[in-house]
Amino acid sequence: MFPIVLLSVFAVVLLFLGFLKSRSVLLPATLLFLVAALVANFLDWNKTYLYFNSMLRTDNLSMVFTAIVLLSSFLVVALSGSFEDDEAAQPAEYYAIILFSLVGAIMMIGYENLVMLFVGVEILSVAMYILTGSDKRNLRSNEAALKYFLMGAFATGIMLFGMALLYGASGSFTLAGIASYASHAQQGLSLIFYVGLLMLLVGLLFKVSAAPFHFWTPDVYDGAPTIFTAYMSTVVKTAGFAALLHLLAASFTYVYSFWGIILAVVTAITLIAGNVTAVYQNSFKRMMAYSSISHAGYLLIGLAALSAQSRQAIVFYSLAYSIATISAFGVLMLVTRQRGMQTLSSNPLSNESFDAFNGLAKQNPLLGLAMATSMLSLAGIPLTAGFWGKFYMFSTAVERGQIWLLVVAVLMSAVGIYYYFRVIIAMYFRDGATEPIRISPVFRYVLVAAIILTIGLGVAPGLLQGLF
Amino acid sequence: MLSDFGTLLLFILAAFAFIALVLFGARFLRPDRPNIEKNSTYESGEEPVGNANIQFNIRFYVVALVFVLFDVELVFLFPWATVFGQARLIEATGGRWGWFALTEVILFVVVLALGLAYVWAKGYLDWVKPQPKLPTVETKVPMDLYKQVNERFK
Amino acid sequence: MQIGLLCALIPLLPLLGFVINGVGFRRVPTGLVGGIATLAVLASFLIVVSLFMSFPAEGGPQIVPLFDWISVGDLHIPFSFQIDQLSLLMLLVVTGVGTLIHLYSIGYMHHDEGFGKFMAFLNLFIFFMLLLVMGANYVIMFIGWEGVGLCSYLLIGFWNKNVSYNNAARKAFVMNRIGDLGFLLGIFTIINTFGTVEYVDVFKQATSLPMGDTTVLVIALLLFVGAMGKSAQVPLYTWLPDAMAGPTPVSALIHAATMVTAGIYMVVRSNVLYTLAPQALEVVGIIAIITALLAASIGLLQNDIKKVLAYSTVSQLGYMFLGLSATAYTAGMFHVITHAFFKALLFLGAGSVIHAMSNEQDIRKMGGLRKALPVTFITFAIGTWAISGLPPFAGFFSKDEILAHVFEHSKVLWALGVLGSGLTSFYMFRLLFLTFFGEFRGTAEQKHHLHESPATMTIPLIILAILSAVGGALNLPGGGWLSHFLEPIFEGSRQVNPEAFAESTIEHSTEYVLMAVSAGVALLALIAAYVMYISRKAVPASDEADRSMPEQVIYNKYYVDELYEAAIVRPIRSMGDTFYSFGEFAVDGLVNGVAWLVKQSSAQLRRLQSGSIGFYVFAMVLSIVLIFALRFFIRF
């Protein structure tokens, strides 16, 4: 609750800070605002509140999700380097939009009423459309924004229709009201209710890029400026899964037998589509897009099983995934910025390919280490946070007895190792351009922090579990 | 004493009077030099007659956006007035209810006004006139010749 | 909180030292390196002493939880330390002896170019050793266990330019892994049986089990396999003599005083489990006596000063396990402590000799050093006296207590133990006489260089010598301080098997006779050594000299290394080769086939991503329709 208010005010302030001559104040101000929001987030710790006539809710789970979202955006903003080298950029507006979108994300995390969910999704999505197209002179960025907007609008329509049908069936927009309606599942519910539920699910699954609603993801992630891709693939995903988790756990546990199998099938398709397609990619950024689809698949395992452990599993997984993804994109930005200028290649794709990482680890051990750590974490190798994330996810599936899903997931993580290790092999075992890359201190701190967090959580996963 | 509809009638009358006053006042102040363009129907500078499927200037959308924003703001003010404007509550709280409601709505308007101020300050409301640059070509052929050729094969 | 902070500081300080010296290697000035490392351990030692002072005499274990570490399902593994009598004793030994050896290393390693790295590794070792000792559950012990193994590997191969040193390091590492596998399986069995790895909970549950429970037997045996690796018991002992490739302080700290006793610590820690499984104890006893005798006999003919000490360490470890096998846990721990004193002393003394002899380790080239190295000589002599089990020094009391308990248990084992004690006495005095008495047999240049070591090296020697001399007072026969102090640790064992802990049934007179016998045998061995090496001035023959058949066998360490090479290493290697060529065809084909399949399907799936929005939306709608069909038209 506090973060919503604070971030709204801060975002407006930030817009007007943009009128200052110097851009250098923007980055520290944004980071300060995010930290303030993060601190304010925990003011309600261990208390449960309902705000605005039960529109919003804060409890420990929502605060932890909010903290993950804020932490991710803190790291992303820190990596953005205040867009120094881009004259046409409008950093004040970008940062303000990020803060506004965070408001939407927090609403998606803490909603107690479908209307708030819709408002949250829209605030977040509209902000994302803008950020995707923020590189105005780049055709690919424009294309991505338009695609994202069109398909997003389509999905929003479906979602809204679903909400309307749910309201029609249950006579309530609140999660509690819907849950009390669904609790009469034994006597039979109206068909409208089920149709509404499916449509709402489809809308949300689109937002978290689950297959077969994932087609927008590679094009959009590829076209958007890398920094915003990092933001999209972490914050939007975390918020989307928090929303799905809350929706299913609070309102639809009574009709699990109806949607459980659908989610399980969607999970399997997502895992296969994401992992298998990623194998063939030559662009690192596009590979990361498919990898983000596959991680949506892993996160869906916890939802499809929806057991007592699911909350913990999803929290842990989103954190592990966000940290690793952000540091991977951070390294990618440094590498493309540096090598892109040297190669002067006419094909903008070429400097985001795997070859750009050749021999990186020799001259830039920190970058190599950061990238290797995050790749290992994403692949789920032990002693990294990603391993425990997958472990918790898989154990929820075991608890539910979804062994076939588990088999698919394990096979697909084996496939995942293939494409994640391509980067590591390129960095450590190939020869390539070996000039050291200049790393600004902020970058260095963020990367080191990401490494420490990933390995720390991998060694002592219990640290986070004590939280809620 | 006026009935409720009487109040309404007063409003309507006042509105008409206002319009009349403004138009009349303007008549005295403005210069009066009509031409065809000025006398045609006002459609923000676009041709009022013809194919509607043409490319509009992108700036219209910005203005329209800002306009819609404030339209919606106005729509919000009506329910605000009816929901919060309750004499009983105002009396029961010694007027604090009224001040609270007023502060809330002022905040709401101020946020939107800030947005307007931002757009204004950024210059997004300025209408930039297109300044077509005619290419100058170094050639010995006089311009009249081209004109003649164009005329002939029109 | 106070105690929690203190406990956390104990391992953190050495870790800090490691980080400073490790990260700042080549940047921290050499003068500071030693100071930082030593102070870190010294500070830990002082904290331990303060904890020890304030620890209530009869107090139960204090658990210091630091944080929740792993929780999976019902299994919760907190990161916590356990402070009780046993861990306090080990802490005192580790940090106390550790401090002295750090101090010694300043003098010994000062000129080495890797000095900073060396001190950093030593600190890291202390950190892991403290984790091993302080951990409140088997998993933390395992981390420490693996950590000390890693440090041992790093330090044995410290002079990594020498291939044979690297091979020695690798041998130690591999042999230890075999033991660790047993330990790990033991931990898994514990988790499976008790559902927890916390000592307190495991032992509480174990006390309610019947004697001779099969699961406990399995656990005890598996854990002992771990102990066999770490504490160098037959058949996993061969790495320890080779480990002498490391710098001498390392041999003293890791391969004599602390790490190798981890196995004994583990058995004592799990005493309830072992008391419950008498068969396991019998196995321990048999392996222990074999180890003790085998190592002692090999020690008789070794000519490398450090190798002799190494085999004596293996043999003494055998004695400790022998004590444990007779449920004399206190006696075992007592020997651990006294052994830490005199073996560290002997190694450091040997280091001082090697230092003086310009890195010469062959005792055939020494002799008459007592004049040149008076401090080293006196302290070394005290150490020798102590290890030989001659009164009144520490070794006498601890070894005697073990033998007394063994006597109660089995007369045969006792007799063999006394024999081993005699062998120990013989080869230790042989070493002493050959090194410090007689004529100098080295080159003239070495003679010219002979000098007493600097104070940083002699001070630890003197302190350790004093401790070796008076250490026996810790546990005088007939209910000493130590046995009283450690009593709460064995409460559980006493509960499950009261007979094993009943008052000694031996008469006092018998006990004195036993003492007299073992001391007498040791004295006889001393005299024999004196006659051979001082009166007759015998010098061991060179490597090429002809030897009688049994001598030849012992001189070559019973050909155990060759046996392992022929029986294990070669078959495994050829098996590996076979599998490799098999893999060339079948496995590679399978793997490549799968990879090919994935790549092909990837290439096909990729086509779905056409970039056309119309297709995307169509695919979405189609999927929605399919989902609806799945849910509403096909019921399952």
TrEMBL record, chain A:
GO terms for biological process: ATP synthesis coupled electron transport. It is an enzyme of class 7 (translocase). InterPro entries: NADH-Q_OxRdtase_suN/2, ND/Mrp_TM. Residues 113-413 form the NADH:quinone oxidoreductase/Mrp antiporter transmembrane domain. It is found in: Cell membrane; Endomembrane system; Membrane. Its main location: membrane. One of its GO terms (cellular component) is endomembrane system. It comes from the Bacteria. The chain crosses the membrane at residues 61-80, 92-109, 115-133, 145-168, 188-206, 227-250, 256-280, 314-335, 366-389, 401-421, 442-464. It catalyses: a quinone + NADH + 5 H(+)(in) = a quinol + NAD(+) + 4 H(+)(out). It is a multi-pass membrane protein. Keywords: Cell membrane, Membrane, NAD, Quinone, Translocase, Transmembrane, Transmembrane helix, Transport. It holds the Pfam family Proton_antipo_M. Its EC number is 7.1.1.-. GO terms for molecular function: NADH dehydrogenase (quinone) (non-electrogenic) activity; NADH dehydrogenase (ubiquinone) activity; quinone binding. NDH-1 is composed of 14 different subunits. Subunits NuoA, H, J, K, L, M, N constitute the membrane sector of the complex. Belongs to the complex I subunit 2 family. NDH-1 shuttles electrons from NADH, via FMN and iron-sulfur (Fe-S) centers, to quinones in the respiratory chain. The immediate electron acceptor for the enzyme in this species is believed to be a menaquinone. Couples the redox reaction to proton translocation (for every two electrons transferred, four hydrogen ions are translocated across the cytoplasmic membrane), and thus conserves the redox energy in a proton gradient. PANTHER family: NADH DEHYDROGENASE. HAMAP family: NDH1_NuoN_1 (MF_00445). This is NADH-quinone oxidoreductase subunit N. The gene is nuoN.
Automatic annotation (TrEMBL), chain B:
The chain crosses the membrane at residues 6-29, 60-85, 97-121. Coiled coil: none annotated. It is a multi-pass membrane protein. Pfam families: Oxidored_q4. One of its GO terms (cellular component) is NADH dehydrogenase complex. It catalyses: a quinone + NADH + 5 H(+)(in) = a quinol + NAD(+) + 4 H(+)(out). The keyword Membrane applies. It is found in: Cell membrane; Membrane. Its EC number is 7.1.1.-. Keywords: Cell membrane, Membrane, NAD, Quinone, Translocase, Transmembrane, Transmembrane helix, Transport. InterPro entries: NAD(P)H_OxRDtase_bac/plastid, NADH_UbQ/plastoQ_OxRdtase_su3, NDAH_ubi_oxred_su3_sf. GO terms for molecular function: NADH dehydrogenase (quinone) (non-electrogenic) activity; NADH dehydrogenase (ubiquinone) activity; quinone binding. Belongs to the complex I subunit 3 family. NDH-1 is composed of 14 different subunits. Subunits NuoA, H, J, K, L, M, N constitute the membrane sector of the complex. This is NADH-quinone oxidoreductase subunit A. It comes from Spirosoma oryzae.
Automatic annotation (TrEMBL), chain C:
The keyword Chaperone does not apply. One of its GO terms (cellular component) is membrane. It is a multi-pass membrane protein. The chain crosses the membrane at residues 33-52, 87-106, 118-136, 142-160, 181-197, 209-229, 250-268, 280-301, 308-330, 336-354, 375-394, 414-437, 458-476, 512-533, 613-634. GO terms for molecular function: NADH dehydrogenase (ubiquinone) activity; NADH dehydrogenase activity. Keywords: Membrane, Transmembrane, Transmembrane helix. Residues 69-119 form the NADH-Ubiquinone oxidoreductase (complex I) chain 5 N-terminal domain. Residues 137-424 form the NADH:quinone oxidoreductase/Mrp antiporter transmembrane domain. PANTHER family: NADH-UBIQUINONE OXIDOREDUCTASE CHAIN 5. This is NADH dehydrogenase subunit L. The lineage of its organism: Bacteria, Pseudomonadati, Bacteroidota, Cytophagia, Cytophagales.
